[in-house]
């Protein structure tokens, strides 16, 4: 598994036309945290992953970049 969660979060966020500030407010983190994740300079806490997935209506597997071939 190639952990590209920051790029995936950024892609989902831009697809949904959500700002870093809006996502940060929903998750209860700082906009700087979102920026770090998207830049690949850090990762969300494991407790935050389900909230991010729910916000974007994706599974945590999708959020972590796991596709069908990697699951099989």
UniProtKB/TrEMBL annotation:
<keyword id="KW-0238">DNA-binding</keyword>
<dbReference type="InterPro" id="IPR001387">
    <property type="entry name" value="Cro/C1-type_HTH"/>
</dbReference>
<feature type="domain" description="HTH cro/C1-type">
    <location>
        <begin position="9"/>
        <end position="63"/>
    </location>
</feature>
<dbReference type="Pfam" id="PF01381">
    <property type="entry name" value="HTH_3"/>
</dbReference>
<protein>
    <submittedName>
        <fullName>Helix-turn-helix transcriptional regulator</fullName>
    </submittedName>
</protein>
<dbReference type="InterPro" id="IPR010982">
    <property type="entry name" value="Lambda_DNA-bd_dom_sf"/>
</dbReference>
<dbReference type="GO" id="GO:0003677">
    <property type="term" value="F:DNA binding"/>
</dbReference>
């Amino acid at each position: 598994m190639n952990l590209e969660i920051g790029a995936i979060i950024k892609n989902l966020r831009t697809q949904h036309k959500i700002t870093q500030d809006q996502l940060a407010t929903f998750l209860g983190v700082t906009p700087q945290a979102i920026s770090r994740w998207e830049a690949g300079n850090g990762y969300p806490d494991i407790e935050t992953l389900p909230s991010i997935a729910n916000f974007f209506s994706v599974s945590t597997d999708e959020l972590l970049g796991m596709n069908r071939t990697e699951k099989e």
